[in-house]
Write a structure and sequence with these properties.
Layout: H1 2-16, E1 28-35, E2 41-50, E3 53-62, E4 68-77, E5 83-90, E6 94-102, E7 105-115, E8 120-122, E9 128-132
Antiparallel strand pairs: 1-2, 2-3, 3-6, 4-5, 4-7, 7-8, 7-9
Signal peptide: 1-24
Keywords: Signal
Protein name: Secreted protein
């Protein structure tokens, strides 16, 4: 009987520990809103720490039918210190979304601009931090 009780306890204890603790959930933070200088474009979103680095998800709102809203993300590489930029645009009035995965970064910044379908042309916000290490 005693052996059966020990066996039952040995089976139940690992099952009780199988539930993921709260610390196992990834860290999430919000950033924004960031608006273009003329206020006609805006962006906001969340950042996540995941297994291989960082994931930045955002919404980009274009409030005017003429031209496009641009979100330009700039990240500094932790290995060589160089900056890389990625642009996302929305040319339809309303809210669009974007997602960018990063590895080995020291910091990530965003700037929201107005522009055409091919590039941002002006009315840009100042660079705002999305993530800064240390």
């Amino acid at each position: 009987m005693r052996l059966l009780a020990l066996f039952a306890a040995a089976v139940v204890l690992p099952l009780a520990g199988a539930a993921a603790p709260a610390s196992a959930t990834p860290a999430v933070w919000k950033w924004g809103p960031v608006y273009s200088a003329d206020g006609m474009a805006g962006s906001w979103g969340k950042g996540y720490i995941h297994q291989f680095g960082y994931l930045v998800e955002g919404k980009l709102e274009d409030t005017r039918g003429k031209g496009c809203a641009w979100a330009v993300l700039k990240a500094q590489d932790s290995r060589n210190g160089r900056w890389k930029s990625y642009g996302f645009y929305n040319c339809r009035p309303g809210v669009g979304s974007f997602k960018k995965d990063y590895r080995n970064v020291l910091q990530i910044r965003i700037q929201v601009c107005r522009g055409t379908a091919s590039r941002p042309t002006g009315e840009c916000s100042k660079w705002k931090p999305v993530l800064k290490m240390g």
